[in-house]
Each structure stands twice: as C-alpha cells, then as structure tokens.
Specification:
The chain is an alpha+beta fold and about 210 residues long. The chain has four helices and nine strands; from the N terminus they run E-H-E-E-E-E-H-E-H-E-E-E-H.
C-alpha cells in the first residue's frame, strides 16, 4: 500500500526528423526569454555534443537543445495541473522554428516519482522468487528493480517503466511516455496527454506487487 508520493522530475522532449539539424545560435536561445522573465538566465554551450542548455531562474525552468532534440525541464517538479512545461515548450518550439525547418518525429514525457509504502518491501524475498542464484556468504542485496515496456496496437504510443526499490519503505518509478507524431498537438491536447501520462505512472505504481 502506498502512503504518499513525490514527483522528483518531469520534462517534455521533442525529437526532430533531421539528425543533423543545426543548433540555434546562442543569441537565439538567450532571446527565448526577455524582460522580467529573462532576469538571471544562463546559457551553457557545449559544441562537442551539440548541446545548449538555457537556465531560466525566474520560472525555475530549463530549455535544452540536445542534438536533434528539444527538452523543457521543470526544475520545481510541479504537478501537471500547476506546471507550465507544455506552455513553455510550445513557445520555445514556435520561436526556434521561425528560422529553420524543425519537422517533428516524436515527442514524449518523462517522470521520476518516489513512493512511500506502508509495508516493508522485502527485496530478499522478491529476489528468491525471480532468481535461482544465491547470494554469496557475507553478501547482501542492496536494491532491486524491474523494467518493462508496453505499446499501443497502433504503434503511436510506447510506455517504458523502470522501477527500483530504494529503501525498505520506498521505491521510485521512471516513466517515459513516447508518442510517434509528425506534429506537436494543440496546447490543450498536449496538456491532457501530459496529465494522463503522469496518471499512468501512478497506476503502474499502484499495481506493483512487492
């Protein structure tokens, strides 16, 4: 039984078809935020890996260009109903594509959520059920995890889950919801998908058998 949950990380990622898409100039990235919203912004440019990361302290947000991907990270890890991630990603995408063709191949959401349980998770018992390999004398099992991936019949959406027991009364789930799409959905639809993907994370947690 889960007693509480805590969202640790959330982001939205756009993947572009062109693997060699030229990155925006530094002044383009910095110009994504101006005026009051632009106070204290910092840009880190690493040309070796074609990455530019813009920190926006006022919004506690990060916009990153990573090869052929654009990522928006909510550094406050707010719940979907309070998050501005979808709005800020849409704005950044619209501004950056004014000077280049940015054809979308896919988009997705990532969540890291920690769950506190009422009962102790006995990873030793779980290990004995799934493995015939005994631990050596003097060894102890420090943590244990699962990974699984599911896909819609249409192939449009794929969900990858990684779960790890991090303490006797705690486990974490990383959930990647991946959508094959040729265009970014309208903002309202994008926000709904973000919320539903987050709810799917909780549904996965509620149905785990520890």
């Amino acid at each position: 039984m889960i007693n509480s949950k805590s969202l640790h990380k959330s982001n939205v990622v756009l993947v572009f078809r062109d693997r060699n898409l030229p990155p925006p100039e530094n002044d383009e990235m910095a110009a994504l935020y101006s005026g009051d919203l632009g106070r204290g912004v910092q840009l880190v440019d690493d040309p070796l890996v074609r990455t530019k990361v813009l920190d926006v302290p006022v919004l506690k947000l990060q916009i990153a260009w990573e090869g052929n991907r654009l990522r928006a990270e909510d550094l406050r890890a707010l719940e979907p109903e309070d998050s501005l991630l979808m709005e800020e990603m849409t704005k950044a995408y619209d501004k950056l594509r004014e000077k280049r063709t940015m054809e979308i191949e896919a988009f997705g959401f990532n969540f890291d959520v920690f769950y506190q349980t009422a009962d102790i998770i006995r990873i030793g018992d779980i290990w004995n059920e799934i493995s015939k390999m005994p631990l050596a004398i003097g060894e102890s099992l420090l943590d244990l995890g699962y990974q699984w991936t599911s896909a819609e019949k249409s192939g449009r959406r794929t969900d990858a889950y990684f779960t790890k027991v991090t303490a006797p009364l705690e486990f974490v789930i990383h959930h990647n919801a991946h959508y094959n799409a040729r265009a970014l959905p309208p903002l309202k639809e994008l926000k709904d998908l973000f919320k539903k993907a987050y709810e799917a994370t909780h549904a996965a947690a509620d149905n785990l058998k520890f």
